[in-house]
Design a protein that fits this description.
Radius of gyration: 20 Å
Oligomer: single chain
Helix content: over 70%
Shape: elongated
Structural class: mainly alpha
Strand content: under 5%
Number of strands: 0
Number of helices: 4
Length: 101
C-alpha cells in the first residue's frame, strides 16, 4: 500500500495543527491504547457479571476442575482481557511519559 505523503501531511496539519509528526503519532497511539483499554475492561466486566466472581476466583475454579469447552474458552478470553488491561495501562503510562520528556 502506498500512501500519498503530501495528503497525509495536509491531514496532520489540519487535525493536529500544533503538533509535529512524532507528537501526532504518539497521540494517535495513546488514543488507540485507551480504546483498547476500554475494550478489555468491558470484556472483563462482562465475564465478572456472567460468572459473578472476579478473575482470580474463576481461574482457581478452572484449575481445580474439568470445565466444559465454553467455560474453558471464556477463561482464555477473560485471561486475555486481564492481560490486555495490564498491557494497555503500561502502554498508556509509557506514551504519556513521552510527552513529558
Amino acid at each position: 500500500m502506498s500512501i500519498d505523503s503530501t495528503a497525509l501531511e495536509g491531514s496532520v496539519q489540519r487535525l493536529f495543527p500544533k503538533l509535529d509528526p512524532d507528537e501526532v503519532l504518539a497521540e494517535l497511539l495513546l488514543e488507540r491504547a485507551r480504546k483498547n483499554l476500554i475494550k478489555y475492561r468491558t470484556m472483563a466486566r462482562d465475564f465478572e457479571a456472567k460468572y459473578s466472581v472476579d478473575f482470580e476466583t474463576f481461574r482457581q475454579r478452572i484449575l481445580d476442575s474439568d470445565p466444559a469447552f465454553e467455560v474453558e474458552q471464556d477463561y482464555f478470553d477473560w485471561e486475555m482481557a486481564v492481560t490486555g488491561i495490564d498491557d494497555m495501562q503500561e502502554e498508556i503510562v509509557r506514551l504519556q511519559s513521552l510527552g513529558q520528556s
